[in-house]
Structure to design on (300 residues):
């Protein structure tokens, strides 16, 4: 028996491109591949990224996506491909709008609306980028996992050791690295591990993919809870992304997240994405299920 060779950073980046490249199967119908080595439920960011690419395939190249809003309706099956049906709602003078339904096993798993806008001049301002350590001074999550392995759940270590196309370097340790309760604020650097070319549409879909990482967990930081807690149940319910300007996702981006509210077994989190030089290129918002099953069991 021969060992499977460890994929290089370039291999992982190429795999992400394959995941995000949807195949036309009929007019306004596209197919996205299953998650490579996938099992269980689909990663929501992958479904959103593929849905955005399906919509993008029906839009003129001079109209980049500037916003999307998606609702997750059912868990996806990571071992199966996904069919995307695109509705061409409007092609206007400046804006184009599309709706996408993601389908598996004959049922919708995601509804997504996306808007595209021609480039035009306008008044401009933006918020300030947080003052955080540079990514080169920080450990990656994989390095943190190896250093803190004796303190981490085995299931989380197994997930960390799976090769992934997006590298993340948190500025402050989060659960399960550090389960201490703290303010609902999280900053992390991220990038695709190797270059993925110059197609701006692909970079925007890759941001949609990556924007689902870690966002919902911010709403549980004040409670010291995380995805590895066996009595917690997490699921994304909806996801919104606004893209303000071009960027490269294979260069370091800062994801600055916070959560202003949680309650009723739901958590709400927001995120801002900055380039290395401080440009604000995207905003993100998500609400999700953050159910403490022990509280539910005690409910009358």
């Amino acid at each position: 028996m021969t060992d499977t060779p460890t994929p290089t950073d370039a291999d992982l980046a190429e795999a992400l491109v394959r995941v995000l490249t949807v195949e036309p199967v009929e007019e306004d119908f596209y197919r996205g591949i299953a998650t490579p080595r996938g099992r269980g439920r689909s990663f929501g960011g992958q479904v959103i990224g593929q849905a955005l690419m399906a919509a993008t395939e029906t839009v003129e190249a001079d109209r980049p996506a500037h916003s999307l809003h998606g609702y997750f309706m059912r868990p996806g099956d990571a071992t199966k491909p996904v069919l995307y049906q695109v509705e061409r709602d409007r092609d206007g003078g400046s804006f184009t709008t599309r709706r996408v339904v993601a389908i598996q096993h004959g049922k919708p798993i995601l509804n997504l609306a996306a808007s595209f806008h021609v480039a035009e001049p306008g008044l401009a301002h933006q918020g300030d980028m947080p003052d955080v350590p540079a990514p080169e001074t920080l450990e990656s999550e994989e390095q943190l996992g190896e250093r803190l392995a004796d303190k981490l759940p085995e299931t989380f270590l197994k997930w960390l050791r799976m090769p992934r196309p997006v590298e993340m370097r948190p500025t402050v340790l989060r659960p399960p690295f550090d389960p201490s309760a703290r303010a609902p604020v999280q900053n992390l650097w991220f990038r695709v591990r190797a270059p993925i070319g110059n197609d701006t549409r692909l970079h925007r879909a890759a941001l949609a993919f990556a924007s689902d990482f870690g966002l919902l967990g911010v709403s549980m930081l004040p409670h010291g809870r995380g995805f590895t807690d066996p009595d917690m149940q997490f699921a994304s319910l909806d996801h919104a992304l606004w893209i303000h300007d071009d960027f490269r996702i294979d260069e370091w981006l800062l994801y600055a997240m916070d959560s202003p509210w949680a309650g009723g077994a739901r958590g709400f989190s927001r995120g801002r994405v900055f380039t290395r030089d401080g440009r604000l290129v995207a905003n993100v918002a998500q609400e999700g299920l953050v159910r403490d099953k022990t509280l539910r069991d005690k409910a009358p």
